Amino acid sequence: MKLPTKKQCYELLKKYKTPQNVIDHIESVTKVALIIASKLNEKGINVDEDIVERASLLHDLVKYVDFPNFDRFKEDSEIVAYYEEMKKKYGTMKHIKASAEIVKEEGFEELSEVMLRHGFMVIGTEKGPQTWEEKILNYADKRVKHDKIVDLQARFDDLRERYFYLKHKNYDITLVDDKEKLFFDLEKELFASLDIKPGEIA
Fold first, then answer.
1. Parent domain of 130
2. What Cα–Cα distance (Å) separates residue 101 from each residue in 32, 78, 110, 117?
3. Does a structural domain hold residue 40?
4. Is the pTM above the cut of 0.90?
5. Is residue 31 part of a domain?
């Protein structure tokens, strides 16, 4: 698999003007992901740590295309103009697909496929994580609230609070319940052979 270097990942974050708060989140996710990948390798489970690291560093490359507005950046008109242009170009894709599409355009198609599988709703489907690298990225992303490493339940509680549509009377909340259960199952799978517990990653 053709991969960017770690340095190139940071160059892409700079090129696409990823906000610092998103980079903080990305770095925390990468920390969690690499701990798990390393521990699995120590137990003889073959995980490509380079894939895990690079996919983690780029998974939210253009997270801002999902932002409802850019009010927090209003002091920098050039940034706002850039984000608005990117939102016009990629906003209908949502950030997961948009980030993966850009990484593909940058010449890293196989890595983009790993990134595509880190969403919440894809778990348990054919579009969900299949390889160890994909499972680790998806799980690690659910262990980070903003830039803080938390347990799965805290992260899911936060998601339910922030995403108002989950509270809508016509929304099938049981679907979300089922997805959350799958993440707890994934956690058990990842840690089954490890000598650390999920709560020890902090």
1. 6-200
2. 24, 23, 11, 13
3. yes
4. yes
5. yes
- Contacts of residue 188, Cβ cutoff 8 Å, sequence gap at least 6: none
Amino acid at 46: N
Amino acid at 187: E
DSSP 70: -
Is the model more confident about 121 or about 3?
3
User: What radius of gyration do the chain's Cα atoms show?
Assistant: 17
**131, 136, 138, 142 alpha-carbon torsion, rounded to 10°:** 160
Residue pair 62/98 in contact by the 8 Å Cβ criterion: yes
Q: With respect to residue 42, please indicate whether it lies within any of the assigned structural domains.
A: yes
Q: pLDDT for 146-176, tens place per residue?
A: 999 999 999 988 877 766 444 555 445 556 7
CA proximity to 40, closest of 198, 184, 191: 191
Residue 8 has which token pair? 């190139």
